[in-house]
User: Fold this.
Amino acid sequence: MAGGEWAGHRRPLAPVARIVGCGLLVLLGGCSGGAPSTLDPAGTGARRVEGLWWLLFWISVVVFAEVMALLAWALVFRRRPDRRISRVEPTRFVVVAGAGVPFVILLAAYGVGLRDLAALRQPESPPAVTVDVTGHKWWWEVRYAGVDGATANEIRIPVGEPVRVRLRTVDVLHSFWVPQLMPKTDLIAGKVRETWLRAERPGEYRGQCAEYCGLQHAHMALQVVAQPRAEFDAWLARLAAPAATPDSDAERRGQQAFLQGTCVACHTVRGTAATGTVGPDLSTLGARWSLGAGAVPNDGGHLGGWIVNSQTVKPGNAMPPQPVDAAALPDLIAYLESLR
Amino acid sequence: MPSSTAAARGTRPGPEAMASLTRHWAEAPSLRTWFGTVDHKRIGRRYLVTAAVFFGFAGASAVAMRTQLAGPEAGILSPREYNQLFTMHGTAMIFLFSTPMLFGFGNFLVPLMIGARDMAFPRLNAFGYWVFLFAGLFMWASVPAGAAPNGGWFAYVPLTDERNTPGLHLDVYTLGLLFLGISTTSGAVNFIVTALKLRAPGMSLNRVPVFVWAIVATSFMVLVALPVLNLDNALLFLDRRFDTRFFEPERGGNVLLWQHLFWIFGHPDVYIIVMPALGIVSAVLPVFCRRGIVGYPLIVFSIVAIAIISFGVWVHHMFATGLPQLSYGFFSAASTVITIPSGLQIFAWLATMLVGRIVVSVPFLFVVGFLVTFVVGGVTGVMFALTAFDQQTTDTYFVVAHFHYVLFGGAVFPILAGVYYWLPKMTGRMFSVRLGRWAFWLVFVGMNLTFFPMHVSGLLGMPRRVYTYPGGLGWDPWNLLATIGAYVVAAGLLLVAVGVVHALRRGAPAPDDPWGGDSLEWTTSSPPKPYNFPVIPRVHSLHPNWDPRTVESTGPGATEDRILAEGRTTLCTSELDGRYERPVEMPEETRKPLLAAVGLLMVFLGLLLAWYWVAAAGAALVIGTLAAWLWPPRRTPQEAGVAG
Assistant:
């Protein structure tokens, strides 16, 4: 359990501080549901930083209140025309309040910060699962070490276990960030970076590229799904297996259209002749949470629109408009939706 | 006032001497002198006006972006437009507004504050302005052309290389900043020499106004930091245009090299912007507390300390790039420590208020606005010094909130305080207090309404530099608030502009010293005469205008060696103690600086459009003009001081 490493932060007043602090933000409408909020951590790393945040938050509130109190005092009581202007030089006050006290506070904060940095470095136990994430303009290619097969913009991890994430980019810099699980790690061209994730509870956690990477930086999201080990293993086995074969006539016609069209130049569907590697692997497309790395929801209508002209959905992405026959489009959609 | 007989001590300048001063310094109001002026007051005002116009452009970009972000999935701006606007917003606010604006104050005020009749190199000063103007136009012209920089103000490679961003976008950026750097560098050199050599006699270093200290320290930082940025931009230009490969990992380059070089410049640049602004606060605040600033040596110490430490913190912009942990520990410590000098200044100002008697004037309101917002930016700044927290919140709206509290709070508020404080001196007109107070409250409320919600949206996981965002993630209300705030700020800033125009048109004539200021600019007329001081004062303390000895030195105690009415002359004094050395002759108006700047514009336009023969012709024009500029005047051996 995370209790061990989290215990360092557990000051007696910490829960109270969090409740009051969160209350303040709720008043402002803050702790609203659905947000990939750093204040609603579900991972070991993010929880560390959340603890650090509340410490820094309360220090900041006290410092701000102190300065504002002095300012208000001066504005109220030093404004009257009958005030005598003092000729004293309260230098000692300036040094103590402006340098001495801050130094002690900063030293303490620095110590806590250093400890948290060390804690983020690596998980307590060595990870059993390694995910290879490659950044593309503007989507995430996801592979698992030792597993033949790929998905996109979606990472599944076993809940409660540390997972190693290796990060590469094929083009520009990106940054891998799942706010509720772990702080950022940049993807650096020409280098391999590493981070780790450990989800404390099952759930879906939104992530997004956090380093400006060009035209569609806004649409480079991903989702981390933390699930029980057994479900994860089943999912991983399916990822490694050939893609689902068509069940209905429509799907079969769709597959034919897919394989005869230009799709195969860029996309892979495992177990078929489609082996392109420019765009995302589509073998499990039907099960994904979105299209275009968070650009639109993954449903038939949006899929059709994406195929016909994704440039209206996500301008600048690498996929050109497809000259698909209007009659063949429903079949194509049916086939792609069946790839789960 | 100490009494002494005029005969024994000297005389104040008579009508003849005044006429001679006017003859040598005044510029006829003609088009010729408009282009050829070297008067630091005119140049300073031009810097201020030009920077304010660029501020307007960059502010309008921000309002457009906020409109796009008012709600989720909006289509007001295309991603192409949005990315150019946010890049130009940042680039212009940093390079074309903040520093030139503060250099404008410096240009106008440094000679007046130290008792000189002009900057040390008046022609270089004019040259610096023209280059700034042309570089600014060079960069802004790319917006209507659809070729504006679009790689962010930080222009990280490899996004900004030729393969990922073809077109002129990034060439405008690299060349524009190299072009502008010439102006900033020449300005910095000028400030340093002016402040070290042209101070009024008696103004030893411990009597130099804090604002001048801040400008000089800033100038030294510019001289150290800017070459690094210039190098970075030159390498990127070469990579893009001539396929060198400094930043290309596949061919032996390194993408992090760009980031290191950029931030070695970039972090000191934060202080290059904020420090002169803090200098304005140190000039304005004590005057409205009716006493000298508390802890002058501490403030000077903190300025110098910041100037040095700021070169050791750049890696905190790279905490997520995966550099070694040890370096994170070091840079985290340095970034933590640098808040202490700023804390000293805050408490020195508070102490000054607590022992003084406060007069809440319009400039003082903006100082209070500065204190409130800058402290917010300061405490969140400490958070970013801690690597773990930085890794979580960097590149989110939390950091956007943080640095706008630092830069809007720490630079724009002091700049506005300075505008109201020195407007009577610069224009000879008083402003409407009512308009000023309205403007303050709009800007103050709007600023907080714009930027405070960004702390929350950042903590809720919203990354920055996104042209749109999905609804339902808890980000919508915060973005709407920020957009409303942006319009309120815009209204407030418009009211500032209205106030300035109103003052120029309808303002009551300003007295020489409307606030009871302590520094030397308040001893001159409003606006100052072309020669600034009929008699160069003698300084005996940190507060010369509150010191009867200085007042006496320009009245009954005036001596010929400080009147210097024959010729266009100011005084040279020693660097540390301000001991009287000798009068120096100052250059007259000339259009050579303008010509040299036009030549440089040709060079950079030629390089941008790959019309290399235009660049060559421009270079020839620059070299020819500089040769004529530097050609020694004909002098007899006696005049040159080499006669046997």
Summary: The longest helix of chain B spans residues 79-114. Confidence is low (pLDDT under 50) at residues 1-8 of chain B.
